[in-house]
Prior knowledge:
By secondary structure, the protein is an alpha/beta fold. It contains 10 helices and 7 strands.
Amino acid sequence: MDVKSIIRLYWDKRSQTYGKNTYRSPDEAQHLWKGILKNAICTDERLRILDVGIGTGFLALLFSEMGHNVTGIDISKCMLSKTRCNADKMGLNVDLIHADAENLPVKDEYFDIVINRHLLWTIPNPGTAVNEWSRTVRTGGKIILIDGKWHDYAIDMRLRRFISKMLVFMTEKRDPRLFTSHYDSIKDRLQFFYGSTPDNVIDLFSKAGLKNISMNNLEELEKFETKNRPLAYRIANKPSLYLAIGEK
């Protein structure tokens, strides 16, 4: 089975539990995220926005609530079904496309904004992906990428991740081995499997011809996530998040 088939299979299975109990204070989280997104797009105009790797629709639905025209793509049909269900419950409209982040069935220079969150680590060819996102953005538009450094291989962090897996199994009734059973065989083929740094993204954006590249370390979000994520997440992770913007 090829890399993308394994990735698709994992997220189809993971969609059954993904997004549950994400934040202890969901209303506060949405307010914080809307502020982050509004600052990133820097306009009150109604925009065409593409969310690449939409998952269950967290960012896309926030943008839709803010009045934008939103399209989401994902490699997993099951994730798209979850987004559709979430959008229907909220009375929101989001166009959904089953597609690969590295090969978008979208015409050139169509969107004002292309955004993704926590996607880079599971893309086999990140340079190809960024070039493709740039192709679909109009001149003067932006690519917004939210990412971080995920894995710290210090002994204490490895112990904490083991404890976290046990908690996940007991409290969320979810088998953490699902992840390793899929990704262990392909992680060496994923350039940013262990996370990315701002310098990594500056390099990717520069090679794609993007300009006016800027970084936001998302310190307020890091503090919020440390307090409001489930215990298993807080044990396993030391948030190191950033938001990168590149203009076409």
